[in-house]
Amino acid sequence: MKEAEIIEMLKNTGVIMEGHYLLTSGRHSSRFLQCSQLLQYPGYAEKICLEIARPYRGKGIQTVIGPAMGGVILSYETARVLGARAVFAEPAGETMILRRGFWVKPGEKVLVVEDAVSTGGSVKKVLDLLKLHGAETAGVSIMIDRTGGKVDLGVPFTALLSMEIESYPPEDCPLCREGVSLQKPKG
Ligand SMILES: [Zn+2]
Fold first, then answer.
1. What are the structural domain ranges in the chain?
2. What separation in Å is there between the alpha carbon of 170 and the centre of ligand 1?
3. The CATH number of 3-178 is which of 3.90.1150.10, 3.40.50.2020, 3.40.50.10610, 3.30.230.10?
């Protein structure tokens, strides 16, 4: 899929919303991302996970892991494409852990997936978890890199889409100046 097709799919499914949004930080933005919107359509999830998996095909990936919640469906569908096993990690205090009897073995080749990264915090915690279990991180595949390539995960990663989402303090917001009505996106 070409980048333009991916963007169109993300807009059509309501992942990329364009307007005038109040972010939880208090800043305003013309864009808001809601990745779960895409994952409510299994047909689209399949298409996007084919792309997420593409760079890692034939690389001997044994397991795909993602941080909950964003990585739950993504890890499952990407694992299906790669013929691998799927698990997800869950937050526990400042770390991510495996619950529900999930496991990764020492030396196991694991691909990490995530829907969107801004600071990359959840992905880094999953990488720490894999290190702790002695697994081999085969790569990190992200649906949307919200930093436009600026995030440092400490390991190489691929992103389907890389876009920097600009935000403004309310007193310096061009959309406010244009009189566009402000919306609060549903979390
Ligand atoms: Zn504004």
1. 3-178
2. 5
3. 3.40.50.2020
pLDDT at residue 187, rounded to an integer: 61
Average pLDDT, consecutive stretches of 10 residues, N- to C-terminus, the chain (187 residues): 92 94 91 93 95 96 96 97 98 96 98 93 96 97 93 92 92 96 85
Q: State the distance from the centre of ligand 1 to the C-alpha of 30, rounded, in angstroms.
A: 8
Q: Ligand 1: distance of its center to the CA of 7 in Å?
A: 24
Measured in Å, residue 51 CA sits from the centre of ligand 1 at 34
C-alpha 139 – ligand 1 centre gap (Å):
38
Distance from the alpha carbon of residue 32 to the mean position of ligand 1, in angstroms: 13
Query: Sheet holding 109-117: strands in order across?
Result: 95-97, 85-92, 63-67, 109-117, 136-145, 157-162
| Ligand 1 center to 18 CA (angstroms) | 13
Q: Tokens standing for 52?
A: 């997420």
Handedness of CA 70, 151, 51, 112 (dihedral sign): negative
